[in-house]
User: What shape does this take?
Amino acid sequence: MKGRIPVVLLACGSFNPITNMHLRLFEVARDHLHKTGMYQVIGGIISPVNDNYRKKDLVAAQHRVAMVRLALQTSDWIRVDPWESEQAQWMETVKVLRHHHSQLLGSLPRTEGPDHSRSVSLAPAAVPELKLLCGADVLKTFQTPDLWKDEHIQEIVEKFGLVCVGRAGHDLKGYISGSPILQRYQHNIHLAREPVQNEISATHIRQALGQGQSVKYLLPDAVIAYIKDHKLYTRDNS
Amino acid sequence: MPLVKTAREGSDQQLETLSMENSEKTDVVLLACGSFNPITNMHLRLFELAKDYMNGTGKYRVIKGIISPVCDAYKKKGLISAHHRIIMAELATKNSEWVEVDTWESLQKDWVETAKVLRYHQKKLEASSYYHQQDSPVLERPGRKRKWTEYSQKKYPEQKTKDVPKVKLLCGADTLESFGIPNLWKSEDIIRIVEDYGLVCVTRAGSDAEKFVYESDVLWKYKNNIHLVNEWIANDISSTKIRRALRRGHSIRYLVPELVQAYIEKHNLYSSESEERNAGVSLAPLQRNSVDAKL
Assistant: This one.
């Protein structure tokens, strides 16, 4: 793994609630980046969106963060970060990327400094790259007028990079060739494929929960228990 | 599952309400046969979807699910030993209150037709209902057993045999469609399955299952005993894909229960070598049925 560029994957979204499909995005993306031989994925961050995003049926961030935390109990490389959800306002994804990037740089071990005993053993640490992880549907929304600012899309693909996990019914390459910006920075866009079709969208999950149907094996057991305990996604509160 | 919970809490008055509410419903046990090589979240979803559907009809009450992994003599390519497949299925159902693993089929020396596995489980239920004729979630609690039996016999002695649960075969659309593959199934077995037991088949919305039933005279005749359940959330976690991912060193996390993943890794179960097992060997049913056809 020596000489590889360390990468941290950041996923933004509602996570309302988190499903096994969201978790799969991380696993598939990591496998894909490792296979390139160029990258070493050293961490994953899930950042649930702020309540002020005002999406229909969005339950309180406090619950969404708690559910992600439960879902990640057994992952040794992905963590939840509540920073975005704790801001006073909704913020653009690019700003979330900037925040986490500066956090990453700040946490880097210094190669020179007062701590001489440590600096000897440390090779100049490679600066980790922060990449936005998303599903095919997000890549598609880059084409939706007014949803994204062009300069933000450009910053995401130019400064950070994108790892997009495709699935059946989505033409990722088509989405890229349909956008001049994406096309220009396509060397910074990694397309991974989920070999196992699964469409466990959170929308479907909420529908099933509202109808009293079982969602077992679509979400981690701990998340299902949390939803029950807090009576989330019942018909009346959505 | 408020009904079972009420029964477990056990006040007689509640039990009475419970029996009255359900007196019209048929108790059902869902049996899934297959390789489970390895068991995936999709297999487990079949049970959840089928139970919701059957209970939702108002006519049935699903009281149990049984996973019956096929025996090694089935000779399917890449089939690893039943010992491991059973343990993985048990790990996968550890957190389920109603689905369990049965080893009878897997312990047979020769491959057993699915119709016979159904018969075995139906007979077993009949035998146990001779002593206590109510649903198993209650009976499984040793402390409740005697009380419940006394209660039932006192109040409804005449219902002794009427209430034996019905075993139904649970399957995916691929199994239903495999009924059309020559020599894979004996036609009399297909009739047995749909006439005597019944089929609960989970299919993708817009799949050809309905058409398949329509185009088969036998299936059409017993279509009241064939329940097609729509799976709205597409999920295609086939065991074949899991094994392929494992061979390529790809993550299978969140596709199979975590305990199953850990077990596979610990015992290094699926490799290019294991995939070659039974390569070039005829599947047991094909072998048996094509010989029968010639005779």
Remarks:
- The two ends of chain B are 51 Å apart (CA to CA).
- Confidence is low (pLDDT under 50) at residues 1-17, 134-160 of chain B.
